[in-house]
Specification:
The chain is mostly helical. The chain has 11 helices and no strands.
Length: 289
């Protein structure tokens, strides 16, 4: 019976997921059928096609589209630099916060993972204190990532002057909750054998951390941090609507004044920026291995 228990849990999860899938599509096809049918109207398709032509500068646009002017590319790349600075500052703040709090967010010994590797170097702390730190830090993680970046930006501009710093702080708070949770779970799932071997040979807490936990956890943590950095670069366009400079603010202004070829230029620069970030993070991950 014990051997069948995991199968039963998986089966129940699959049934629940299938039920949610059917219920979601049923709601869309029944209650939102008008909205779905509007997507396939001739007028909707025509509006979409006209918008694409305006982005390309082939309809109701300037004589020379913005993405064909060298000077406009220079301005856009300068804004891309500001966006890059914002993303690097944001992920740096989030990573420092994660490094300071993730050790306290590891599930204490005796919970669901009684042999969790991450608890070996925290054995000296009192059980009540370990549970208190775990619950407090995990609650902070939940709150930080539950509030969207745009909402954090709206709050922060009441304290910090709108600009790169305000946008970076808003992005950092949200991603601090995500990176912190993922990093704490990485430590919880580590193989406990190296820490036990170090402990049996007389290694202290700091030695078990440096030679048992970090070598296993650092590559995965770096992967999560780099992935969130890539996401931050894309999310700057949202934060830029209210609190920051860079490409996000220019995108908002271009949309407001219906300068669609400028919008196309900004999207092209975003594509290049995110592509360069992908290549840089891939190279860093290879170095980490």
């Amino acid at each position: 019976m014990k051997a069948l228990r995991p199968v039963g849990i998986v089966g129940g999860t699959l049934v629940l997921a299938a039920g949610l899938f059917v219920a979601s599509w049923g709601y869309i096809l029944i209650d939102e059928w008008q909205a779905v049918s509007d997507l396939f109207r001739v007028g909707t398709v025509g509006d979409g096609w006209r918008f694409v032509l305006e982005l390309a500068g082939l309809r109701d646009g300037p004589a020379t589209p913005a993405f064909l002017e060298a000077g406009r590319w220079g301005d856009a790349l300068a804004l891309a630099y500001d966006t890059l600075v914002m993303s690097v500052l944001a992920i740096t703040i989030a990573t420092v916060g994660m490094a300071l709090t993730a050790p306290l967010a590891v599930r204490p010994r005796g919970a669901v993972r009684p042999s969790g590797a991450g608890n070996t170097w925290r054995a000296a702390a009192a059980p009540a204190l370990r549970w208190a730190s775990y619950l407090v830090i995990r609650t902070i993680y939940v709150f930080a990532r539950a509030v969207p970046e745009l909402v954090w930006a709206l709050i922060i501009i009441f304290v910090v002057q709108p600009g790169i710093v305000a946008g970076a702080i808003a992005l950092a708070i949200h991603n601090f909750g995500i990176v912190g949770k993922l990093s704490a779970e990485v430590v919880e799932d580590l193989d406990p054998a190296p820490m036990r071997a170090l402990a049996s040979s007389g290694a202290g807490t700091r030695q078990r951390l440096l030679y048992g936990v970090l070598p296993q956890a650092a590559p995965k943590m770096l992967t999560y941090v780099l992935y969130r950095w890539e996401v931050i670069m894309r999310t700057t366009i949202v934060v830029g609507f209210v609190a920051a400079s860079g490409l996000g603010r220019e995108f908002r202004l271009s949309m407001s004044f219906f300068q669609f070829t400028d919008v196309a230029l900004i999207l092209l620069v975003y594509f290049l920026l995110v592509g360069a970030g992908d290549m840089a993070s891939a190279g860093l991950r290879r170095l980490a291995r």
